[in-house]
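4.2 Preliminary Data

To establish feasibility before requesting continued support, the project team ran the inverse folding procedure on a target of 76 residues. The structure was first converted into the token representation described in Section 3, and no sequence information of any kind was made available to the design step. The complete token record follows.
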């Protein structure tokens, strides 16, 4: 399953990069995003715009104060 650390990607390019990575995945895969903040806006954006996003399977873990791991599963 792919993992994408977006902390080093300029904020203006993050969502586009994430969408591209998600689209390239196979159905049933999960994209793990590593970010420096909770990605609530991205969750809502994916839920509204990406039909293949399994929002019920979304999970968030705070690994450290500046490290959040969010799992974005793709429907099968």
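Position-by-position output of the design step:
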């Amino acid at each position: 399953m792919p993992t994408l650390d977006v902390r080093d990607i300029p904020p203006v390019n993050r969502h586009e990069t994430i969408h591209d990575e998600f689209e390239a995945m196979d159905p049933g895969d999960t994209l793990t995003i590593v970010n420096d903040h909770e990605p609530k806006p991205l969750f809502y954006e994916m839920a509204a715009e990406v039909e293949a996003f399994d929002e019920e399977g979304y999970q968030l873990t705070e690994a450290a104060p500046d490290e959040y791991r969010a799992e974005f599963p793709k429907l099968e």
